[in-house]
Amino acid sequence: MSPSAELGTILLVETDPLLRATVSKYLRGCGYRVIEATNAAEAIEVLGSHDVQVLVTDVELRDASGFQLSAQARERRPGIKVIVTRSAERTSAAADDLCKEGPLDHPYHPQQLMDRIKRLRRS
Description:
Radius of gyration: 13 Å
InterPro entries: Bact_response_regulator, CheY-like_superfamily, Sig_transdc_resp-reg_receiver
Domain Response regulatory: 9-121
Strand content: 15-25%
Pfam families: Response_reg
Order of helices and strands: HEHEHEHEHEH
Strand order of the largest sheet: 2-1-3-4-5
Number of helices: 6
Helix content: 40-55%
Structural class: alpha/beta
Keywords: Phosphoprotein
Shape: globular
CATH class: Alpha Beta
Protein name: Response regulator receiver domain-containing protein
């Protein structure tokens, strides 16, 4: 079994291609299998066909909000862990309902995301 199979699969939904590529590369380097999506529709397709343990989504997607996507993900996979990211100027009380620690502010260092994933996986 490969190390990435042992750690699990992360679905990264991010509209910014540079951020998505940077974070994906980092998470893969940490041993996770990463599936990338650019919008909610792609993410829903992935959730229907892959065993995803962690969803990382931007709060503002082109076709839905990250909160809407998170709710749909939880309906499909009740045990999925969710991390919602956002730009510092955006706030939302709804994040507390979906994400135990609240949104992770943009810009974030990939290590901050890795730390959050580790905490979620232990909870």
